[in-house]
């Protein structure tokens, strides 16, 4: 009575195939990384003087590439020196050709808001 032993080659081939298909999938999309530098935030009254608000700190809320990020909190004394960089990273799976990148992101909007932390 002989026992049948499975060859480990079958398992290895399967793993290699899975790795190959993941690599092929990565080649068929475009990764977009945007670094947004926030330096200063100015808010002046009608006379051109800087404004100092009482109350809670302010921050900048940024929405880009379907992601939402916030800056650090700052005293509401304008101009606010932010000196911060926000990084937005997105993989565009519907963009197969990098030459068509501008067409794919045509409908994207950037939204910046100044908000207070209540």
Radius of gyration: 25 Å
Distance between the termini: 79 Å
Which structural class do the helices and strands define?
alpha+beta
**Proportion of beta-strand residues:** 35-45%
Mean pLDDT: 78
The strand count comes to 5
Helix fraction by DSSP (H/I, runs of at least 4): 10-25%
Specify the number of helices: 2
Report the uncertain regions.
3-21
> Main sheet: which strands, in order across?
3-2-5
Largest sheet data? 3 strands, antiparallel
Order of helices and strands: HEEEEHE
- Envelope shape: elongated
Describe the protein:
This protein has 118 residues and is an alpha+beta fold. It is built from 2 helices and 5 strands, in the order H-E-E-E-E-H-E. It has a 3-stranded antiparallel β-sheet, with no helix packed on it. It is elongated. Mean pLDDT is 78; it is low at 3-21.
Secondary structure elements and their pairing?
Elements: H1 9-27, E1 30-41, E2 58-64, E3 67-70, E4 80-92, H2 101-104, E5 111-116
Antiparallel strand pairs: 1-4, 2-3, 2-5
